[in-house]
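To: structure subgroup
Subject: Chain for Friday's discussion

All,

I'm putting the inputs and outputs inline so they're searchable in the archive.
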Amino acid sequence: MAHVCTIVPISLTVGANRIIPAVAIPHPLGDPEKTPAEEKKLRKALVKKALLAMQTPVDEQTVFNE
């Protein structure tokens, strides 16, 4: 499982295996300050990162920052 979250320490505390940091608490998968095209690009990048995390073998909790 991959957990897209805005507060990484909480994900670590609950034991998430693959953690993908999101944008911000009120808008985890978007940014209302961006144009629709920029926001789509941002969301696509987060989903790609989550899919990559799901394919990556892990032995311990891992935060996918890059």
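Points worth raising on Friday:
The first strand starts at residue 2 and ends at 5.
The longest helix spans residues 36-55.

D.
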